[in-house]
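Session log. Operator J.P. requested a structure for one protein chain; no other inputs attached. Running the standard single-chain path with token output.
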Amino acid sequence: MSYITTAELAERPGAREIAQQASLPHQMVRDDALMDATLRGTDRSAWAPEQLAAADAALARVQDAVAEAGALIDGHLVQRGYTLPLALPPGSTGRSMVTVWARSITRYLLNKDRMTDESKDPVARDYRDALKLLGLLAAGKFSLGADDPAAPAATGSTDVRFDSAPTVFNRTQLRAFR
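Structure written below.
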């Protein structure tokens, strides 16, 4: 199961970045609209066959990166004892977090040949943050929110009792001081 779709990647980071990073050097996807249509699975009949072949090759690289990101996330989830594939309701906080992590890891995998200073690169920073949070999740120090299947179940009743030392002065002893 993938935690992010190619259509979600078309939204953010966008078809332009995906086309630049996923294209092979000898088969560049130069048309952002073609890459967007390929990622979203919409009509591509307006483009030439060689352009479609380049877009399909880029899509295959994106799908490989998405699968690799999903495997990395699953590796962390299984350490915590989640049953895989992880089934969180759409729109839940946990689902959103896992999608953000999948996006960050996928972008890093597509951008791994980029020559930049990793300490200042936002793609590398997001990747490191995703791995850090996944590590905390695997260690049980982080939760996926209210819908987290591995969260401890809340007990129905909580019994609170207060205990204190016996009183030193009572009302009858203090009556004399009025």
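Operator note: DSSP finds six helices and no strands in the chain.
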